From TrEMBL:
The keyword Cytoplasm applies. The lineage of its organism: Bacteria, Pseudomonadati, Pseudomonadota, Gammaproteobacteria, Enterobacterales. One of its GO terms (cellular component) is cytoplasm. One of its GO terms (molecular function) is sequence-specific DNA binding. It is found in: Cytoplasm. SUPFAM superfamilies: Ribbon-helix-helix. Keywords: Conjugation, Cytoplasm, DNA-binding, Plasmid. Its main location: cytoplasm. GO terms for biological process: regulation of DNA-templated transcription. It holds the Pfam family TraY. This is Relaxosome protein TraY. InterPro entries: Arc_rbn_hlx_hlx, Ribbon_hlx_hlx, TraY. Belongs to the TraY family.
């Protein structure tokens, strides 16, 4: 199925564990951002840094080398 991209972007609904919610809220408080903005900034950063997550515990960076967690 071909990918279609909306120039305005898209909304994503996520279900976070209580632990993830706490971590996100604490990070947002530290940065002065809303939870939504904090999640956006972190997702954007992660997508730019890691092109793929092939398996749990192994990350493939945008530069092409893989690293262990």
């Amino acid at each position: 199925m071909p990918a279609h991209y909306n120039k305005k972007g898209m909304s994503v609904l996520l279900r976070l564990t209580p632990e993830m919610t706490k971590m996100l809220s604490e990070a947002a408080d530290r940065s002065g951002r809303s939870n939504t903005r904090e999640a956006y900034v972190r997702l954007e950063d992660h997508l730019k840094a890691f092109t793929d997550l092939a398996t749990p515990g192994r990350r493939f960076t945008a530069e092409g080398s893989d690293t262990d967690k």
